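Postdoc handover notes: sequence design on the structure in folder B. Input tokens:
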């Protein structure tokens, strides 16, 4: 699984700032049907559902061709407020750290 490992260090600082905004952040899931790994990822996200707005992008649709070209071998892929966050699955520890950082400022 690929994620930003230096949480709230330089590479992930912008993500942390976005997560702590006054409105809920948007977590975008790039997916397609069928995608068993995406289904598993959505289940893992259930405990976090009150902490973000989940937006799903079906990369197999013609209007999402750019995402198909970029992510066809990597789904599920996640962006947080438009910034790449992780791929191949959900890093629960990363989401916990982001939520903790947002809570504690």
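Designed sequence:
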């Amino acid at each position: 699984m690929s994620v930003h490992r230096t949480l709230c260090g330089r590479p992930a600082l912008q993500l942390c700032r976005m997560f702590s905004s006054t409105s809920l952040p948007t977590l975008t899931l790039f997916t397609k049907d069928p995608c068993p790994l995406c289904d598993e990822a959505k289940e893992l996200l259930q405990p976090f559902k009150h902490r973000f707005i989940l937006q799903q992008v079906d990369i197999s649709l013609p209007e999402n061709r750019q995402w198909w070209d970029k992510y066809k071998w990597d789904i599920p892929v996640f962006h947080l407020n438009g910034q790449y966050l992780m791929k191949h699955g959900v890093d629960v520890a990363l989401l916990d750290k982001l939520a903790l950082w947002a809570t504690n400022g």
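Context for whoever picks this up: The longest helix spans residues 92-104. Don't rerun without checking with the PI first.
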